Predict the 3D structure of the following.
Amino acid sequence: MNQKSQRRRSATRGLLLLLIAGLLSVLGVGGLASPAFAAECTPDASTGCVQGVIKLSSGDPAAGLAVSLDGASESQQTETDANGQWAFSVTEAGTYTVAVDEASLPEGEFLRSAAARDVDVQLNNQASALFPLTDDPDAVQAPAADDDAQQAESSQSSASSFSWSRFWQQFVSGIRMGLLISLASLGLSLVFGTTGLSNFAQGEMVTMGGLLAALFAGLTGNLWLAGLLAVLASAGFGWAQDKVLWKPLRKRRLSLMQLMIVSIGLSITLQYAFQFFFGSGVVRIDRSTAETITIAGVTLTVQSYIAMGVSLLAIIAVGLGLMYTRFGRATRAISDNPALARASGIDVDRVINIVWIVSGGLAGLAGVFFGLVFNGLNWFTGGTMLLMFFAAVTLGGLGTAFGAFVGSMIIGMMVELTNIWLPGDLKYATALLLLILILLVRPQGIFGRKERIG
Amino acid sequence: MNFWIDLLQSILQTALSPTTAAFVLAAIGLNVHFGFTGLMNMGQAGFMLIGAYGFGVSVSFFGLGFWPALGIAIAAALVFALILGIPTLKLRGDYLAIVTISAAEIIRMTVKLAVLQDVTGGPSGIPGQQYRPVFTELSPLPEGRTTILGLEYANTGVDDWWTRLFAWGLVAFFLLITWLLMRSPWGRVLKGIREDEDAVRSLGKSAYAYKMQALMLGGVMGAFGGIVMALPAAMQPDSMGRPTTFNLWMIMLLGGAATIFGPLLGSILFFVVRLLLTSLAGEFIPGSLLSSQQTEQLAWVLIGISLILLVVFRPQGILGNKKELSFNV
């Protein structure tokens, strides 16, 4: 058969695949709270910190609340980040008043006690103030001074009570998280399979998708269009990354370790570039309050349902593409044995280039959905999730696309379900612990083959 | 003119600061892992956290003295290395990278837990005055302040000569240890493993055991780095997170992996160049154009780019030998 026509056909298929992924992404728009840390303050000899975390009555972090600080000679304003954290740094010890702007609370949430608290701040030390929220207007207490500690305790114990309805809700959230993770980890796995590179900058590709969607949403005012543009831009970024950076480096025959460190450098560069352009606060794609729908006892935002549907379609499209198209077969051939693939006439560089485009597009789509489902994201959102992507890919078996999907679903479930029994700040840790435990028993991952070891 | 004198002074201050020494210590450990043995440890900050909290919690919560606390910190680092090494050292290199980075994050999330507020201080960490006294009371220096080369610090206290002496003493000690070990038969086996593991195995050496020993040794050095970092300041979970690991890699590669003095040179350069960048930008670029925060962010962007350029164009670093680093993990 004619080589050229073969090549052209696989290119058309690849483009078609992209187009499908792009179109799917247009269908998806929505709002959730994202894991990340931005609100930070480190006390030293000339700085004192005031900080705290605000959680919604559901236990999810409350992002984007306006918090203000007044006292001594300072007056500051901030917003809670995607983890619900807020922090102020002050340069003078003294008593400060911290207040939450009640107007910035989401609908249906009330402050359980006073909206403002006095805090004693010392230099080289940290102080905190709690603002418990409730969804029951009757539970709002008269402002009391010294009940902070008690409330913190009660809110913690309520988080650990088990019920089947709660389990079911968390289970569906787990599926949602798993689907979002698998978007990004599919790309990571494809790149790893074809080039051997563990791409530490994959998280930043996710962040970029979300931030661009926010930018485009502001420019165009249409979420669907913004999402599509963000995914296309992310795919373009994947293409450019390969052309400008990775392909020349492959030509120079850098070792895998060196490539990995280059990706770390890229990740640092991108993170701080995001901070430079978008600031370190929470960026929201959709500023309106998301509507929720209850299906079969599970309450999620409309955006969540759309995100789950579109993610699933995109994943299926990539899966079918890998199985049945010429390009997909070429990708799998390269994953199996690059030298043999090259010898049998596959244009390895072109396939890898398309893999980068798909990887970028999927990561961008994941970023858009992270931003929508968790109601905002910041410069470090992808960085926080990066380890989840790695855990998913390693768990499923390095370099197997199907394994990446299964691994992602397990990790997603793990993250959301452990939330029922363990404190919320441990949810990512348990997923990583599971990874280490499984590697102890089955080092090649669930679907990996033995020959990939050692 | 004043600006330049001040700048020189702060360069000297930065080069001598305990934080710089802490990064040297952790980078020496990382160099034992990666430079000499070829292990991709992406969680050196986890070892630092283990060391720092092992020490700090022993003193502030269990009320132990300096030496027992130090012993616990070292033991904790050894156990941590063992836990990481058992599942991964038989696998390909990137497994170790992913497992170490995950484990380091687990440690960070665990010490940050609000439930452990009484033990580790939760997200706010342990203030220095809770564990520093056991260290300062060992000080042989007399009371008062001393000025050397225009740098004035208290002899013993929070920002003091005693901590600097201890920190740089440890650096000298570990540099010597590394130098002695790497020219010993043991070190030659490590380098052999880095170049060709199968060859070493065919000579009847257990590559697994040697890698494990190297992982433990470098981990203990990392733990000392964590202790030194926490001594003059406070124990902060987020001060030893993933960015710290990445900076350590930068430091090691800058100075030169698989060299003895690479980590020392790398660390001093890393901190001094960052200081130069931000203070020059602060002095000569008007605040309306770039706020100090943005200068900081730009400095980080430059760090990221220089890491890429360094690995691409001079992977052996300043002091390194290219032939020594042509291995693949």
About this structure: Chain B touches chain A through 59 residues (CB under 8 Å).
